[in-house]
Design brief:
mainly alpha; 2 domains; 8 helices; elongated
């Protein structure tokens, strides 16, 4: 199972490429092959004619972005909305598996919906353009934040202050003891000399 988990980036790549290729081809035929006819068809559905241009460029540009893995979540969101409107206005009354049914646009909408939340994965331009993309950041280690600083913990801070105070007291005690010892050592010959004079 761990081996399959390691292949998750490949699964995301396959999902993204499949959806992107299908949407790019559909959008290409509408943008460069019959945009005016598509606008008339959309107007016959009771929608504004300008939404035909919106859906055509959404499919074409959204498919291109999905293939590149660039702005994947935004492109997937737009494609998901486009397929939902297509199911609602065009395919739903034909049933799931009937002639012109909504099984195919539903599958595309499901792929787009998954990519909204999963993202493009590491094999995409989104991963490269992200901060620290393509490299392993030290901030990913447990107990460290993005700026490589330890995560704040009130108990640890309090414990560190107590240890620091104890250490300071011990060092002051040792230093004062050293000075006392040196003073007594320096004063000892004077006392013995005075005793000899007496």
């Amino acid at each position: 199972m761990r081996y399959l988990d390691r292949l998750q980036p490949l699964a995301l790549l396959v999902m993204r490429l499949a959806l992107g290729a299908i949407m790019l081809v559909h959008g290409y035929h509408k943008v460069f092959g019959g945009l005016h006819h598509h606008a008339q068809f959309v107007a016959s559905l009771g929608l504004p004619a300008w939404t035909a241009y919106l859906s055509s460029f959404t499919e074409f540009l959204g498919g291109l972005l999905l293939l590149l893995g660039l702005f994947t979540r935004v492109a997937a969101f737009a494609v998901c909305i486009d397929m939902s409107v297509a199911i609602w206005k065009v395919h739903f009354h034909n049933g799931l598996t009937g002639n012109g049914g909504y099984e195919f646009p539903l599958a595309l909408a499901a792929l787009a919906f998954a990519l909204i939340f999963l993202g493009a994965g590491p094999i995409a331009l989104d991963h490269i353009r992200a901060p620290g993309g393509g490299t392993k950041s030290k901030s990913a280690r447990p107990g460290r934040s993005r700026d490589h600083a330890p995560i704040a913990n009130p108990k640890r801070k309090r414990r560190a202050r107590n240890l620091s105070a104890r250490a300071g007291f011990i060092w002051r005690y040792r230093i004062s003891g050293c000075f006392t010892f040196l003073y007594n050592l320096d004063a000892a010959p004077v006392e013995s000399g005075a005793a000899m004079k007496l």
